[in-house]
């Protein structure tokens, strides 16, 4: 559903922490008209509405859908609610941008895509890591064979865990759908869809204290390691967790160390900073052995741009790099990691996406 010469009318549901980063970006986009905000904690919806001049606010999705019309629902609620709310929005004829993950299972996510297609609607999911110029640079080096015969890659992302909401630690939560998801999107984006996964997961901190529920029992993994087979002998590794001391903290501002590394037999590359906020790529090759820094400038890329980019795409009709089949593949990898961690077995994957992305 494109809206030439118009703005995308956007509604947001889930007015917690991340909405405070999304809304400044959305409110500055020339392609966006903010229509309504919703949260089951009504004062949060009201607060965001007042902060960002959003004319309507609601305590329930049904009321939001019955209010003034909008084209795109931006879903930034607890992770476990995404699949259910995305389905309600599609059934009500709205396009969807969902925070990660799109749904609780690959099956649920695939059903959402089928539903969207049957209704000629669109659904997309975070993250937006494929939009960074550093990702594009790395992808091009790989595609042009600058690293020679590709062999392997590593990615990691962790901090000491969110302190504000319990859902991060409840069933369906965990470090993988919250943090590892960026790394899985980056590595599959660079190396191609994974064919199988083997993994180990654990709970390092069995009890936590969070702002909204006090002391809770941790039910989802807070420590995960997975290996992906990308075919042609290429293997990659992701580790994520909520028990990583890092002096750069949650935001990672100023993080100089590489969090993504790729090796081939004629070169290697490392992405400086986290993959959701990179600020350079260090590369050494057989022809240029001195490691050199490339792409120090992220340009207009920021991780919170996803919903704005999709709003623009709905107006212009230009297909964005962010692709729902990629998000579904990442979801299947997350589910396979949980399964492999539980059974100790390798899990074969079925999903694919159009690759290379750039
Ligand atoms: N906080 C961040 O920096 C950050 C960054 C990137 C992505 N994310 C992702 O964004 C999502 C939200 O995270 P958060 O940190 O903002 O959590 P949060 O707990 O701060 O906010 C979630 C909000 O959703 C509301 N909510 C829950 N169920 C609802 C429902 N059925 N209808 C309406 N509102 C509902 C809650 O009341 C809460 O206000 C998660 O998927 C998280 O992984 C968060």
Top keywords for this entry?
9-stranded mixed beta sheet, globular, 358 residues, binds nicotinamide-adenine-dinucleotide, 6-stranded parallel beta sheet, 30% helix, alpha/beta
Overall description:
The protein has 358 residues and is of the alpha/beta class. It has helices spanning 19-28, 42-51, 61-66, 82-91, 106-118, 133-143, 175-191, 306-316, 324-343, and strands at 8-13, 32-38, 56-58, 72-75, 95-98, 123-125, 150-158, 196-202, 207-210, 214-217, 223-229, 235-241, 258-264, 267-272, 281-285, 288-294, 347-348. α5 (106-118) runs antiparallel to α9 (324-343), α6 (133-143) packs across α7 (175-191) and α7 crosses α9 (324-343). It is globular. Bound molecules: nicotinamide-adenine-dinucleotide.
> What is the residue-mean pLDDT, rounded to a whole number?
96
| Strand order, largest beta sheet | 16-15-14-13-7-12-11-8-17
Q: Spell out which ligands are present.
A: nicotinamide-adenine-dinucleotide
**Main β-sheet, in a few words?**
9 strands, mixed
The tally of strands reads 17
Structural class from helices and strands?
alpha/beta
Poorly predicted segments: none
Alpha-carbon distance between the two ends = 24 Å
Shape: globular
- Per DSSP, the total helix count is 9
User: Beta fraction of the residues?
Assistant: 25-35%
Order of helices and strands: EHEHEHEHEHEHEHEEEEEEEEEHHE
Binned, the helix content reads 25-40%
Radius of gyration: 20 Å
